[in-house]
Amino acid sequence: MEQAVSNYLSNLGIPISKKYCEKLIASHADYPSLLSVADTLERLGIRHRVARVEETELDRLPFPYLLHSDGQGGKLYFMRHQKDLAAMQDREDAGQVVVLQAAPTDEIADPENRRRRLEETLHRASLVVFGLALAGLLFVHLPSVRSLFWIHFSLLFLAVAGSVIGWLLIGKEFGTQYKQPVLFAGPAG
């Protein structure tokens, strides 16, 4: 549900932090209801409309929108185009559905969203820089080696290991939380 909302808002060009938006929806007291989505949009300062409509009237609504159908297990669907709607209307339990449409905006009222969005942007940029640095290292180092000795491979390994550790430390500095690996899965005690 929360992924559909964050994809929808990103598709509209609304500057949201996807992880923050998904966290707000998932941590809402009424999750997984449409109220959790509406309250999150309200908190972010995104104007929106929610309406119950007959499925026969869906063709008249402008795309994109979010569709909530009780017949599909209460799931929320991101309707981008007419073909997405056609796939939904092939089911047997047609009736009333709830539609949510958000108004595109360039400004989000929640300051935490701005901070988290900046962190996500810096994280993506650091991944790109790390990948380019690793590719550059391999591009520069490997052709210069005429005969491949174990010392060259060990130096290359140390350079790559140093880059990975540096990237992890920079990510930690920006507040990235890494999952702890499970080393032993035996019985406790």
Summarize the structure.
The chain is α+β, with helices and mostly antiparallel strands. It is built from 6 helices and 4 strands, in the order αααβββαβαα.
Protein architecture, described:
It is a single chain. Helix 1 packs antiparallel against helix 2 and helix 2 packs across helix 5. The chain contains 6 helices and 4 strands; from the N terminus they run H-H-H-E-E-E-H-E-H-H. The chain has 189 residues and is of the alpha+beta class. It has helices at 2-11, 18-26, 34-44, 82-88, 111-144, 150-173; strands at 48-54, 65-69, 75-79, 96-102. The longest helix has 34 residues, at 111-144. The chain has a 4-stranded antiparallel sheet with strand order 1-4-2-3, sandwiched between helices. The model has no long low-confidence stretch (mean pLDDT 79). The two termini are 39 Å apart.
